[in-house]
């Protein structure tokens, strides 16, 4: 019993820390660093406010830990899409679909990243280098490797790797950012489930046609990726045009 006591104490401390982090992610993604309240975080986590300072030293330390916490899940999913057991071309298609679905579902990450980009432009962004280290650098390196590998094997057309990344991610970002304007011209809501499903399907099929030297092979890969990666079902319904605040942070 005595030997088990330190383990139980460590487990409780770990659970408490995780509860605080999840509450902090929600508070910071909603209100930003300056607007977030440590009282609200403690109340949401159901802990004494003093524990926030015990585990994280202060609000800034808690914010940095929250950024790392929410980034970890994103980078894990993004790198899983680049599993080397898939061909280079299929890895790119999976990455494109993963990015689309991330914008659709990972709203806390999107919000925190957008806030940090604004703060960086103002000269006060401290957490963005964390985003780059944990999310972008390993992702960009593996994407570039996939393009180079695909070109070398003849699977992919000879294209600029950076342009491939801009094309994949830029198109997804534009879809979500332009939705309020596009709805004025389109006879449907771009955030309806059917519209989202059709758009992600069209995106992957387009890349299969545009990037692969053998378009028929690209179509096969696109079909397989879509079958293996069905559209996720967010915990809440896709927002209407009157509730697009979170979507404007789609980056």
Describe what this molecule looks like in 3D.
Helices cover 74% and strands 0% of the residues. It has helices spanning 4-35, 38-45, 49-56, 59-80, 88-105, 107-121, 128-153, 161-177, 179-185, 193-211, 215-228. It starts with a helix and ends in a 23-residue tail after the last helix.
SSE topology sketch:
Blueprint lengths: L3 H32 L2 H8 L3 H8 L2 H22 L7 H18 L1 H15 L6 H26 L7 H17 L1 H7 L7 H19 L3 H14 L23
Question: What would the principal axes of the Cα set say about the shape?
Answer: globular
Strand pairing plus helix content: what structural class? mainly alpha
Low-confidence stretches: 235-251
User: Do you know the CATH topology of the largest domain?
Assistant: Tetracycline Repressor, domain 2
Quaternary structure type: single chain
By CATH reckoning, the class of the largest domain would read Mainly Alpha
